[in-house]
Automatic annotation (TrEMBL):
CDD domains: CysQ (cd01638)
Keyword S-adenosyl-L-methionine: no
GO BP annotation list: inositol metabolic process; phosphatidylinositol phosphate biosynthetic process; signal transduction
Listed cofactors: Mg(2+)
Entry keyword set: Magnesium, Metal-binding
The keyword rRNA processing is annotated on this UniProt entry: no
Protein name as catalogued: Myo-inositol-1(Or 4)-monophosphatase
Binding site for Mg(2+): 67, 85, 87-88, 207
Source species, domain of life: Bacteria
Organism expressing this protein natively: Loktanella fryxellensis
Entry GO MF terms: inositol monophosphate 1-phosphatase activity; metal ion binding
PROSITE patterns, A to Z: IMP_2 (PS00630)
Family per record: Belongs to the inositol monophosphatase superfamily.
Amino acid sequence: MPATDLTLLLSAAQAAGDVAMRHFKTDPQVWDKADDQGPVTEADFAVNALLADRLRSARPAYGWLSEESPDDGARLGTQRQFVVDPIDGTRAFIAHSLDWAIALAVIEDRRVIAGVVTLPARGLTYAAAYGQGATLNGQLLCVTQTRDPATAQVLTTRPNLAARHWQGGAPPAFATAFRSSLAYRMCLVAEGRYDAMLTLRPSWEWDIAAGALIVTEAGGHATDRTGADLLFNAAHPQVNGVIAGGGVHPALRAALS
């Protein structure tokens, strides 16, 4: 059941956070991924190894998708899957910023049924199971009900504000902010600290799966850039951008071209 999976994810996230913190601010070895996919550190690999051992040994029938593991496609034939980002926000981790996260999710029938996003350096753990609400360190979360994009606070990046993306050639005059981790951005929306987040680039499943459930269980919406439902465990594990928000989500979607 989802609650059992959530308990497993929480336990694994705690252990993974301990491993990551042993590497944090120690300047671990860094490599550049192929195809301009960004940096990866020995901490990413160490966390990935721990999670693979903990989660796959506990649920050997579940498929596996991780940013730091080769994807052989075997997950496509399984009923449930783990979707894992060992360190979301590796650049922040390297820069000694606190804004990196570990994101874990369980998928069933292409939907997220359990998710955890933990920020060990901040002492924050966001969690949700389908139909059971979302929490931060055990306290229930709720999105904001702001409806006017012009008065909203939105987590996004400058390229998403380009005229070509918006009806009328310009975005609404919302205030913007940034965090390195996509998973953390989604959780901040679930927490009600920001009204929405959006990214218009193709987004990897491991960055957004856990956060998508946390937002929706906090009463919000998480869709692709067209407003379509987010579906996971795709053969090519990317979605067409992400809009996550509370009351402002429909208006933000309508404002996009």
